[in-house]
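Incident log, entry 3
Record: DUF3558 domain-containing protein (236 residues)
Problem: checksum mismatch between cached and fresh output.
Input:
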Amino acid sequence: MNQPPPHGWHQQPPPPPGWPQQQQQPQGWQPYPQPPKKNKAPLIVGIIVGVLVLGVAGTFGFLYLGANSDSGSPKRGGTMPGVCANVPEAALAKARTTNGNPAMSRERKLANHTQTSCAWDQTKGKDGSGLRNTDAYVVVGDAGQEYERRVSQSKQNNQGTINERPLDGLGDEATAVLVDGKSAFLQVDIIVRKGDTVVEVEHTGWDSGMFGNKRPDVTEFEAAARGLAEALLAEV
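Fresh output:
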């Protein structure tokens, strides 16, 4: 005769020690919600904007540095000829052309007159950005014809609009010829006759702007050229 199972036989025996216990989840239990995934769009947009800003800043910086680079050359040695060597440093500094060029300056004695040519440009690290060049000519002898010839020659310049006007208080007679182009380029010629001597100063150049060259101030430009003409007249 079969004996009934012992009391509690239908229950599962407890697991041996060291085995994990199977836990019952309470009624109504819900798992912890997962945190929402972060939206990466603002980060990507920020990176793109940052790259664009850096690119624009780099472009502007490159253009600015290029426009404002020092166009001068190292100070030359050698001696300028004749009256060229005696031009005061202050007059050259005002014209921003303190770098004498002996190779392009010479003195020549011809049949009825003597002609001295002088050339200056910018000294690197001293005369600033932009561009300046100064050429001067001193002719002694046959001054009447030489003065008219040089004024006429200056007015034949085809680089821009020609403006001519007389200058007072400079030699026996003096003329300023302004070549005003559509570009940043500017040229002023000062031609002076004093007795039997003619002096001509050609001053050319442009200034640096934020992102390119710009036209210099005409008044300052002419004053620099006139100062050089006065300095040369004082030496003859």
